[in-house]
Recover the amino acids of this structure.
């Protein structure tokens, strides 16, 4: 099976780009009014996962699913640092990778979809497994991805704020539950990416 030009370019660039482990709930989506379960239910409607995705979904689903300000902040990070993305979210319990990608395409995260790592999501372990365990399992199979940043939240980002070695902490940014990504987390995220950029360029 041939790779698309975009997928091939993303894969070849992987060693030189920082990987961003991206959560969705309480980072980009507050489930008010819609969340992951609504997306999964909408995708269960006939034809919704096809290019014509207008059938079966609430008419305002894709316009109101995500926080516009949070998406704008993530887009600013993307435009400046061009990360590769790995989805690290409970949403992958609700839908397979191809539907996660369709969600990204339909909800103003097309820039994330276009820059997903070829191994686009953390492995599924036990449902109550620590988020850090999932991320560490992914990193253990991608030793080339030693420049990474995590964007998660305090509620679901289990294992990310306690017991971490000090050298990891500058690269873990956690959002407040029911608030999401704000200017405060954006500033921390920029700092994390700046540190990774310096490491890649050999400054540090």
């Amino acid at each position: 099976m041939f790779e698309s030009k975009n997928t091939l370019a993303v894969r070849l660039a992987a060693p030189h780009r920082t990987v961003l482990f991206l959560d969705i709930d309480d980072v980009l989506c507050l489930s008010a009014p819609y969340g992951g379960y609504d997306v999964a239910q909408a995708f269960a409607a006939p034809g919704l996962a096809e290019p014509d995705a207008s059938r079966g979904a609430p008419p305002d689903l894709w316009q109101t699913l995500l926080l516009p300000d949070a998406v704008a902040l993530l887009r600013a990070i993307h435009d400046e640092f061009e990360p590769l993305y790995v989805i690290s979210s409970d949403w992958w319990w609700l839908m397979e990778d191809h539907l996660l990608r369709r969600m990204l395409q339909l909800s103003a995260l097309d820039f994330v979809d276009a820059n997903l790592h070829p191994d686009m999501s953390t492995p599924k372990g036990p449902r109550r497994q620590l988020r850090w365990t999932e991320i560490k399992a992914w990193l253990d199979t991608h030793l080339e991805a030693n420049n990474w940043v995590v964007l998660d939240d305090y509620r679901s980002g289990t294992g990310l704020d306690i017991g971490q070695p000090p050298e990891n902490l500058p690269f873990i940014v956690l959002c407040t539950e029911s608030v999401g990504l704000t200017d405060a987390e954006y500033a921390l995220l920029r700092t994390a990416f700046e540190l990774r950029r310096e490491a890649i360029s050999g400054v540090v």
User: Anything to note?
Assistant: Helices lie at 5-13, 36-43, 61-64, 68-81, 97-106, 110-113, 131-140, 183-201. The domain at 5-201 is CATH 3.40.50.1000 (Rossmann fold). The longest helix spans residues 183-201. Residues 1-6 have pLDDT under 50 and may be disordered.
